[in-house]
Amino acid sequence: MAFDTLHMRRHSKPLPVTKQRMLAALLDFGACTNAMSDNKQYCREEIRLTRQILDEAGLNSFVEEFLRRHWELERRRPSTLEQDWQFHRVRAYREAVVRLLLGMVATTAIGEGCIDEGIRSTYGDDDLKILFRIVMQCQIIDDVLDYSEDMSTGLPSFLTASESLPEALKRTHQAALGYADNRDLPRSDDVFPLRVALFLASACAKATIKLGRLRCAGRGNQLRNARTLKKEWAD
Q1: The predicted structure's pLDDT at residue 226
Q2: How far is residue 124 from each of residues 6, 18, 84, 103, measured CA to CA in Å?
Q3: Dihedral (C-alpha) 92, 155, 39, 129: value to the nearest 10 degrees?
Q4: pLDDT tens track for 79-130
Q5: Measured in Å, how far apart are the chain's first and last C-alpha atoms?
Q6: Which of 79, 160, 191, 227 is 20 to 30 Å from 21 by CA-CA measure?
């Protein structure tokens, strides 16, 4: 919907069906690329087919530019092996990856400009600003649910960005509150569905973080019980 609105504002006509399919292929390709860079499961056939669709649409050079920028972000991404983990660096990395993908799709939807213009629109365009926050809430949910896997493989995420899991959960909750804040967003009817989607995504993120805290507390109790039992056996 956000990309339909963006196209309508620039061209005063709905987004063609063929372009809608192209944007769907771009989103699928971006998701697969991100999973591949994180060594997570992805469908090789899906990424091959989406790349074929994009090449046939004449977007080969555009996709290559996206891949170049994406791999540059991945090359410079924060490492969880650093002694002094910095939450704001990991958050900035997460946001940059999301803005790159949304910027690429937005540029295609507009049909003009470059990826840089699309990235800038994620800061200034009302629809994309909301969509960006929705995606970031989804990223938080994913990071909380995948904490164990991300920690074992050394992937930077909201929860692996601090040496203390409780501290990471606290900072992640603060980040989620920031993305949920809609006081600077318009209240016009055309963005109402996106505002509802942001509210729902934010509620899910909040619930997921609460679940993460409960799990963290449960692990702490198990550890304390194990230490008590060990002490009793020693006595």
Answers
A1: 39
A2: 12, 27, 33, 12
A3: -20
A4: 765 555 578 889 999 999 999 999 888 888 776 668 888 899 899 888 889 9
A5: 66
A6: 191
| Total of domains in the chain | 1
Burial group, residue 140, by CB count within 10 angstroms (0-12, 13-18, 19+): buried
Whether 232 shows a pLDDT value over 80: the answer reads: no
CA 72 distance to own-chain centroid: 17
Burial class (CB in 10 A: 0-12, 13-18, 19+), 27: middle
For residue 208, give the nearest of 162, 153, 142 by alpha carbon.
142
27's CB contacts (< 8 A; 6+ apart) are: 101, 105
Contact 205, 170 (CB under 8 A): no
Q: Which domain holds residue 201?
A: 2-234
Please give the average per-residue pLDDT across 174-201, as a whole number: 91
**Contact at 8 Å (CB) between 157 and 143?**
yes
Tokens coding 108: 């295609």
Enter the pTM of the model: 0.83
Rounded distance between C-alpha atoms, residue 166 and residue 192, angstroms:
35
